[in-house]
Amino acid sequence: MDNQTLSGQVSLVTGAGQGIGAAIAKKLASLAASVVLCGRHREPLENTARQFTRAAKTEVLICDVTDRHSVESLAHSVEQRFGRIDILVNNAGIGGAGGPLHELAPEVWDQVINTNLRGVYYCIRAFAPLMIRSGGGHIVNISSLAGKNPLPNGAAYAASKWGLNGLSYSVAEELRNHKIRVSVVCPGSVHTDFSPFSKKDASKMLQPEDVAHAVEMLVTQAPQSFASEILLRPTLKP
Fold first, then answer.
1. Is the pTM of this model over 0.70?
2. What is the pLDDT of residues 197-223, one digit of tens each?
3. CB pairs under 8 A, 24+ apart, for 162-168?
4. Which of 62, 117, 119, 147 is the most buried (most CB within 10 A)?
């Protein structure tokens, strides 16, 4: 693939300081897109940015996706800096504590739902108008196979991802006439520094780069069609 495929396009990745988000940001930069890396803490974002080539156009902006005003400020900064947005990757997410739902603290439930679902709503609400004015684009929501299957002792996380999938399918219908393609990527277990699956064979697990490749496929499709969902599984069971 031409490494200038996304030249002239502006992308933004939430939760870009580590793991899947960092891999997606690096992939988009390798395709010559300008990349805005956002997250709650500057140091991890700067660490990601340092891994890019000197030619990469990157911007580090701090944002807490659970805070509507923080997201609105982020959107304003992107519009002031670039004047457009072409690719929005809603990746920021947390797993939350495990255990039966009836033992889950309400504040943990709120934290999971606010990050994994409400945060995506805030981002779409803030950036879709700019994307419409830009003439179209891509919104890619990073979900999970836990949004397709039962997850005992992980009900809050599963609920957030089932909700994210429903949000994605519905918003895709709302925005398609604006030439905005909304897709959802549902990976299985991904090996990252914060993976809870320590007993699995890491060499057989999905890697962050696998998810980044799925995002690459979505944002480089021909304009007359789009894949609304990708279910991503490892070739070998860990």
1. yes
2. 556 788 888 999 999 999 999 999 998
3. 163/113, 163/116, 163/117, 164/116, 164/117, 164/120, 165/229, 167/117, 167/120, 167/121, 167/141, 168/141, 168/143, 168/228, 168/229
4. 119
Whether 147 and 190 have beta carbons less than 8 Å apart is answered as no
Residue 155 lies in a domain: yes
Q: Which residue has the higher pLDDT, 196 or 140?
A: 140
Is residue 28 exposed (0-12), middle (13-18) or buried (19+ Cβ within 10 Å)? Answer: buried
Q: Domain limits at 220? A: 10-232
Q: 87-98, pLDDT tens digit by residue?
A: 999 999 998 778
Residue 5: inside a domain, yes or no?
A: no
Instruction: Measure CA 205 to chain center.
Output: 19
Q: Where are the beta strands (DSSP E) in 99-237?
A: 137-142, 180-187, 229-232
Residues in the chain: 238
- Is 193 within a domain? yes
Assigned domain for 136 exists: yes
Active-site residue set: 157
CATH number of residue 39's parent domain:
3.40.50.720
- Domain count across the chain: 1
Q: At 57, list the tokens.
A: 């156009």
